[in-house]
Design brief:
- The structure is a homodimer.
- Chain A is an alpha/beta fold.
- Chain A contains 10 helices and 14 strands.
- In chain A, helix 1 crosses helix 7 and helix 2 crosses helix 7.
- Chain A is globular and about 65 Å long.
- The interface between A and B is large, with 72 and 72 residues.
Chain lengths: 365, 365
């Protein structure tokens, strides 16, 4: 069999091996059905059990309050960048506050600008997006349609430690790249969404956790597929959902609950993995220069640079020979990035850390 | 191993066994990568080769002209029901002509009505949606923003044999349920779209074939994910596409090209399969009552009724015991429906035909 490597891609990213193995085992026919998960009706009892278990797992893992809907939608985080302002900004006469912490929050603000007025409640550009703001740094509009933030910026490798209190103004969170990496108080948010392909499953499904009062506010003059009300009333089955991707979310959350033991445990493991790499950076005497300010460091995406581009190329080449792949930074910023989502084994991070220490020894002047 | 059954579901539907087997074989790691197709970066060389091959296969199978884009989008046909009017009706001051042939065309017209004025250029309701219109039956508006039709109505089991000529007015076709079942002149359409889960792959990807002049007309004040221009300029990689579903489209179209031998061959097989079932209906002396008028009969979805509901329940129960599943009609119309898409083996149709003949013998008075 093909040897699996350690894949540090920012997403799509590694999945837990037991989930992949179960999907493989049952791919020609789901037990008890004689039909592949790739062929099964979304109205079948077998699939109803799967989507209900996926939702139940998420509700347990995140202690989601009862007045929140859990939706399995398509279109990635980027469709959410559009749906949020289509549903809650357009036609309101208000503006929306965006906390511009990096590439993804900026992109979301640009998408919203097609639908209404937007405002940067904070912008980290002057500081080269190295840090997250403190709650006191935000200049919030009390009449804003909503406040929007991105909990973890994959490209810059920075992550919120705590979230601002926005009072009565709905807080919307793009949690795509740190969803399920640690416990989170869902009740702080009006909407919390995440594409699956970092911590929850394969590309092709986006999980939207949305408070019921928001759903009821969604306007009527929108096509169904971009209308939160229709999606919530249809319980993600208004049309054919991405059946296989939902099934994988079920398998991945089964693993999180039953093998890992929940999000507190997952966070401990994630902190331990991140610490290994940040120590390799901090102990390198400046050979590795971390991008993020230490207090804003992401436990999901570790971003750093080497002294020059030639050494970075050499680093990628040798890493690959050690079975360590996808360590290039995003094409918009360059440098190096190790994405260490939930499914990246500790062994993979140890191998990378050992390689980094050795590479530094051999190449530092 | 679990025994596979004959699944007559209207979609998601059966997939070619060789495609499922290859997906299963390579699920833990794509050959040459060490990474699962469920984990691989959409920016990787390996995935670039897959999506390019999927597009090339579709271009070969359908002889798609060079001035058409082939897009792999999310959201199902239902998002297209919204995107077409968001891009080409809203704000034009025109109305759009819908050919209302059954449940899906009607649904598409309702979705468009959220974005602008719509008109039924024909409506089969009075005839209980048993037939497709002739070209001369349509009352077309020469100034319409576009003319919209559904090439095959899965719920009613009726299918266009030829398409109307709409002159300079763009013709939009929802080909979801008969895509790739026979050759089609793509050049007749401004847009032809199909969700994958009937003939092209699993649920989670929608193929949109769109002429370049339409793409260039898409407006700027739409979020990216519902904007055809952005999707075409990004070559389906503006954001993370549904990687696994695209991979399955590649495997299914490989099978169509290399094993079946193209769409002429596929149509021959499909006609033979449909004929077997329609003959069982026509030769039953009225025991089975077909819904569709003979000239409008679909070669994908064969709809019929038994003399009463009790017999229908008995029919479903006994069919299941013969390994014949999902024969219930859509919940909105009842009755029976056998969906016999490309991947349904002739053997499955023969088994159903034999069962129908036998059931009739035993139960007809």
């Amino acid at each position: 069999m093909e040897k699996r490597i350690f894949n540090f891609s920012p997403g799509p990213a590694m999945l837990p091996l037991p989930a992949l193995e179960q999907a493989q085992r049952d791919l020609l026919a789901l037990p008890g059905t004689g039909i592949s998960i790739l062929e099964i009706s979304h109205r079948s009892k077998a699939f109803a059990a799967i989507i209900e278990q996926a939702e139940a797992n998420l509700r347990t893992l995140l202690a989601i309050p009862d007045d929140y809907h859990v939706l399995f939608l398509q279109g990635g985080a980027l469709l959410q960048f559009g749906m949020v302002p289509m549903n809650f900004l357009r036609g309101t006469g208000r503006s929306a506050d965006y906390v511009v912490t990096g590439s993804w929050a900026k992109k979301a603000m640009e998408e919203a600008a097609t639908q209404g007025q937007v405002r940067a409640a904070w912008d980290g550009k002057a500081g080269n997006y190295k840090q997250m703001p403190d709650a006191g740094d935000l200049q919030l509009d009390r009449n804003a349609a909503y406040v929007y933030l991105c909990s973890n910026e994959t490209i810059q490798g920075i992550q919120f430690r705590s979230y601002p209190d926005t009072g009565d103004v709905p807080l919307v969170c793009d949690a795509s790249s740190d969803f399920l990496c640690r416990p989170v108080s869902v009740g702080r948010f009006a909407i919390l969404f995440a594409c699956a392909q970092k911590n929850a499953g394969p590309a092709g499904v986006t999980i939207v956790i949305i408070r019921d009062d928001m759903v009821r506010r969604a306007p009527k003059d929108l096509p169904s597929m971009v209308n939160y009300r229709v999606m919530a009333e249809g319980k993600s089955l208004f049309n054919t959902p991405p059946v296989f991707a939902v099934y994988m979310v079920k398998l991945v959350t089964d693993w999180l609950l039953n093998t890992v033991g929940g999000l507190e445990k997952m966070e401990q493991i994630n902190r331990r993995k991140a610490q290994m790499l940040y120590e390799a950076i901090d102990d390198s005497n400046g050979f590795y220069a971390g991008h993020a300010d230490p207090f804003s460091r992401s436990i999901m995406n570790v971003t750093f640079r080497l002294p020059n581009a030639a050494l970075e190329e050499q680093f990628f080449k040798e890493a690959k020979e050690h079975g360590l792949a996808e360590l290039k930074g995003h094409r918009s910023v360059g440098g190096c990035r190790a994405s260490i989502y939930n499914a990246m084994p500790i062994e993979g991070v140890q191998t990378l850390r050992d390689f980094m220490v050795d590479f530094c020894k051999r190449n530092a002047k």
